[in-house]
Amino acid sequence: MARSKIKGNIGILVGGGPAPGLNGVIAAVTIEARRNQMTVYGLLDGYKWLVKGEEESFMAHIRELRISDVSRIHYDGGSILRTSRTNPAKVPNGVENSVKLLRKLNIRYMVTIGGDDTAYGAMEIARLAKGDIKFAHVPKTIDNDLPLPHNLPTFGYQTARDVGATLVKNLMEDARTMDRWYIAVAMGRHAGHLALGIAKSAGATLAIIAEEFGEEGYISLDQVCDIVETSVLKRRAMGHNHGVLVIAEGVAERLSPEELKQIPGVIVDYDAFGNILLSEIELGKIIKLKIESRFSARGEKMNMVEINIGYVLRCADPIPFDQEYTRDLGYQAVRYLLGNGTRFRRNAMICVDNGKLHPLPFEKMIDQKTMKTSIRYVDTKSDSYVVARTYMVRLENRDLLDKEFLKKISQMSRMTEEEFINRYGYLAK
Q: Which residue range(s) make up the domain with 14?
């Protein structure tokens, strides 16, 4: 017996930066929706054309999706629907225009794929639609910073860590071969999961993430450079002149805007969601120049190379973990939208644990202080973080208590033992 056609069509859009597995979600949503006799529309470029309210340009940027269009795209990185960072709430009448155009196409169900900003846009549109359009948000970010239950990873993170660890492993061998240091900047605006995961997996010399400085307040650039400098000095005292630092880009966001503006060539600008444009702040280069300057003042040449590996990871082909994970997420998003019963009535973020659906209602995603989606930070008190720190080469209290080693590292810094402790001892506390 043929299934009855669902009343209303389903739309899919992608927001924010790319992540491995986007196409897997798009494919799974399309296949399951088509199996339920639904018409599926892919909205190109996220909210970009939706918020304008211009029917002609909107219609030129939608694509009806069939199973034949998506059956093998789950292997591929990138997004067949592309993406954008357009914020509906920041565009005049953007939310109202979005509701109007979705109704025009009789789109009664929406699957949004993205991070916290994309989820916020979905919440605003859902609020104004007053039940006419039901949303299922599939969380995506290689930063792994969305508060999913049971500490579940966001899709794309595992692939990004896998590719990133391979890149850093290669940099470590290059550093050893060329006898120099690398600074690898990884993505992670709010949280350092990716930088730490890459460094820990690859066995990098050290990782620096914003969470180690506390959750609030500005970070001093000098303190960041002190950590790097003492790591270099410690490696030299151990007989090595090479290493790899992995640092989360979010460290730059925690630097004082006033301090950043004083650095030649740095532009402090903001995106539509009020976030500092980290792509305009070359964190690795800033640290490199400052460290090289410190060694130059001692009459020494320091060879550091900075590289941003973030953009290399975002459109990588997903590993099998994310291929499977995104298929579950896309399927469950459609099942949630079409489900009956109390737990299916609200707009929700879709979480899948061991193949089972765990919807998180939109209102539970909001941090009441910031009125934005909550952030999952690295727990610096966890055993996992302790293990990561244990395997890093950083200045420790035992280095200061070991008289022979203290003498070595002090000589490397052209200081007396007392001067070294007075200058850098605070890092070991």
A: 9-155+318-373
